[in-house]
Amino acid sequence: MTWFNKLPRLVQILLLLIPGVNWVVEIIVRWGTFIKKGGVLRLVICIVVTFLGIVVGWVDMIWCLLFKKLCFQ
Questions:
Q1: What is the pTM of this model?
Q2: Residue pLDDT, tens place only, 3-43
Q3: CB pairs under 8 A, 24+ apart, for 19-27?
Q4: What is the spatial distance between Cα 52 and Cα 39, in angstroms, rounded to a whole number?
Q5: Which of 16, 23, 34, 62 could form a disulfide with 42 if both were Cys (CB 3.0 to 4.6 A apart)?
C-alpha cells in the first residue's frame, strides 16, 4: 500500500524487524494491495503471509533494504 512506501526507509526497516509487528504490517499491506489490485499471485502471497508472516517479514526487510519496496508488491 502507498502509506507503507511513503514511510522513511528506517521506519520501514524497524517495522519489519520487530517480530509480531512485522506480521501485522505484512498482513495489512498485503491484503490491502490485493483488495486494491487483485490477482492470483497476490492472493497466494496474502495467504502465505497470513500463516508465515514473521518469516516473510524478515525476508521483506532484506528485500526492502536492497530494492526499497516489499517483495511481490
A1: 0.79
A2: 888 889 888 888 888 888 889 988 998 899 899 998 999 99
A3: 19/54, 19/57, 20/54, 22/53, 22/54, 22/57, 22/58, 22/60, 22/61, 23/49, 23/53, 23/54, 23/57, 24/53, 25/57, 26/53, 26/56, 26/57, 26/60, 27/53
A4: 20
A5: 34
